[in-house]
Amino acid sequence: MRNLIEQQMRTLQAAQSRKGQHPDIMQSREMTIMQFMFQQKISTINPIQNPVRTSFLPPAYPPSVAPLDMLQTCMFKDLMLETHHRGSYIVLRAVTPPSLMLGAMLIVEDEEGDVVQLTLYNQDVHLTGDGRLAQGTVMVVKEPYLKVVAAGNHAIRVDHVSDIIFVPEYDPIVPLSWRPKVMNADGSANDWKVAGNDKFSQGKYHQAIDCYSQALKCSPSTAEIVIIRQNRALCFLKTHQFDAALRDLDGLPEPQPSKKTLFRKAQALYHLQRFQESCEAHQALALACPNYDAAKAEFKRARERLKEQKHGRYQFKQMQAEARKRSPPVLDRATYIGPVAVKHTKSRGRGLFTTRPVQAGDLLICEKAFAYVFSDIANPDQHRSILINIETSEMTKGVDVDLTPLAVQKLQQNPSMAPAVTALHHGSYNPVTVSEVDGMPVVDTFLVDRILSNNSFSCPRSSREHYIHALRRSPKVELDKDSPSGGLWPMASYINHACHSNARNAFIGDMMVIRATEDIPANTEITIWYRAADYDSMPSNMRHWGFDCTCVLCQDYRETEKSATSARKSEVADMHKALSRQVPHFAKAESIISATEKTYRRPALEVPRLELWEMCLALASNHAAHNNPRKSVKFALKTLESLSYVVTGAELPYVPGTQLHVEKWGMLQGRAIRCWMILARAYIKIAPRLVSQAVAYARLSYKMWLGEDETFDQTIDLWSDRLDGLIDSAR
Ligand SMILES: C[S@@+](CC[C@H](N)C(=O)[O-])C[C@H]1O[C@@H](n2cnc3c(N)ncnc32)[C@H](O)[C@@H]1O
User: Fold this and answer.
1) TPR repeat ranges (predicted)?
2) Which of 72, 269, 281, 695 is deepest in the core (most CB within 10 A)?
3) What ipTM did this prediction achieve?
4) 667 Cα to the center of ligand 1, angstroms
């Protein structure tokens, strides 16, 4: 990676030395086109198996915010290398079909016939399939950037999707010589509507939108306006431009909103997650057209979303099943924001705070990802892309590379969603303040990239699946770690990090479920882990996020003598040796635990003991496996104590009438579920009345760790052959 960055830095410096020069034109127009077509042909005849695609993000530059009529037209011969031509635009026509790599690459010409390579980043993957970008397409690049590329060549590079406008052949900006000889640009509104319908039936929705827009400019009658806008709204729904669909449907000149208007409006509102209004539109539709069956199912769906959004009522079992079956595991569910609010913290910017007291296990947030990319473990070669940000020296790998284009497109399609995303933490990046120009949204790719770098989460297909694989030590887990899925969850992005946190975020497909992992008073900051605390690398390295963690755990590791932490590490190794013999050396293991305990400076109640809890759990498991329930209870309880839990009523001998109770919750770990199950199984013979209480705590820990407990009974069973209670057939 360092080599790649250094090499690219040298290329960049060499390129910078040519800044302001006109490019050397080494070959003829024909040769440039032929060479490009030849390479395209070679790659289709002889494709490289699973190519690793490496790309570099140039130093950040702002998107164009100038209205087109404030810009001057220019030609290729006016362009200079390594220069953003502010104040200019260039009209280009594709002379080759595009080739899709990490961006869309093609050869274009200007009005004078000069050719140049054009590379478009962050564009919709359907751009070439739906006919928007093909040989012959005319486009306007605002404030073009001519960049030196590999081997000293040059290309016009467009990083911001709002810097390029694809124009239909009849647009006045298209040079006369490029317009088709026979053109019905002066057709009637009806002609354009028919042309739009034709494009619609071919699935060319963007081109249909252009036709309908042209129809609206041709003095249509009131009745025609209604039909054209309804049709255009349908195209906007198909292209996921829900804001635009709503705009078309709102205030149509109809005496009463028609069936089509209401239905399409309800759909647009649904996809904008405005479920209350979607239900209202459905309600009006149900009154007007009680027998409209297609709408009934949609209305039911909208009501279910509303219930989730308002009350946090989800069918988690069904969600888990869907996440397991679907690829990508994108779930049709609403976001619930529970008893939390964004507030300013003293020293960590904004944070999320409780608005009322909550209990361990309570649902705080269940959020649908704004953008989500899925890494399919069954197909690990699917994404072998690497994106290197030269400015920040950060590398993005695998499917994460697709997250920026996805988020950028979504913002461009639905600008009403932008404020929730652009308000997220973006460090020192200085974005443009203009959000719309010429009626089109302005999307700053580099801002989105910064936001994702600071706020995106990596995730498994589901935390439950990950947990089950981890218990079985499936190699799949490793694969998952190498190239995880990822996404952006805007509300969760306000949560600050603490190694010893009071909440946990679990995943079910593209839904993030955040629950309290302890009882939290009102008006208290919620924290989660960005990275799990690992005693091998404490204090946690949070350099990527630009802060040093100051939680009690990290503070304690900073203040602990190096000799004490290295002693603990060697005790961990000794413990492993003592327990991995055919007959475990129990006495030795106990003496290691006593020795390790002495290396801690502060009580476990104040600072969890990372090395110790693992040792205690290992010993509890070994005692359970060797049929020593009393000892396994002793060390299971010591595991919890090492994690800062205060548990009462669990000690032996059992005193009739006592209840097992967690007085204070400690640092939640996935293996706490195993610990509670070891306790439950040990109690079967020696304190049967405590069994169900220990299972209840296993269930609650499961709920906090995996986001729900509806699948507990199909995953964990007291009578399983395994110590951790995992049911063999659980998947
Ligand atoms: C995902 S954002 C969290 C929300 C952020 N505080 C805000 O104002 O939008 C991550 C950023 O929050 C800050 N942050 C998170 N946890 C922190 C902590 N424990 N200490 C200091 N800063 C923290 C860092 O600046 C980090 O890059």
Assistant:
1) 189-222
2) 281
3) 1.00
4) 20
